[in-house]
Amino acid sequence: FMAELAAEYQRKYGVEVILEGGGATKGIRRISDKTVDMGGTCRPKLFDSTEESTAQLVPVAWDALVVIVHPDNPVKDITLEQIRDIYDGRIANWRELGGPDRRIEVMVRKGKISGVGLTLRELVFADANHEFAATKVFPSTGPLEKAVEQNVAAIGVTGISSARKRNVRMLNLEGKEPNYDTVRSGEYLLYRPLYIAVNPTGERSAEVKRFVDFAHSRAGREIIRNQGSVPYLEALRLVHKQREQRRAARTAANP
Q: H helices within 14-135, ranges in order?
């Protein structure tokens, strides 16, 4: 939703926000090294990383992680256990999920600290270093999503606000559709905070603060909702609920 927030911010205040992609790690580290004024990130800082130490993260939204498949794939639902089995290589054919007799091709991000990859590892596998049984590895989320659009055998995980802009099918998880109501209530089980990374002593820190305040305003929250995410202040209970979810993931990983 950063593009939509930036466009409305420029209309309201006459200040242009120049956007550049690259992922959560870049969003944090370019703030920490003071080469940009603010960054977007879908994961928290790595506190053992000196490259991220000086950035401050302000949560602005909650975003569902969605399992995506090709629109012609007939599978509609998936469980957390099935996700674990697919990413561990124990389920390798769509037939085992009620689909056609076709090999599952697992699309993943390179590395283990991308926002999607880190959250998936922590909430499903309770292990930030977990290895996935990947068919193909991509340098960023955009190419991964595009690969799922083009490959009827593919499966991947991405954020809902990004998936909504692609020609993919988002699977229900444990019978729950990913949407504003199920994420806000915590019924939909895969979600993560989204942050704006800031440098409070930066040259444009006052302007950045005004942008963050705008993101939390009524108009900003409406933009966030319209892009499929939940404004952070509208679901503070999820902070506690996600702690419970991490404990449940540890139990599932180590019964």
A: 24-32, 80-87, 115-120
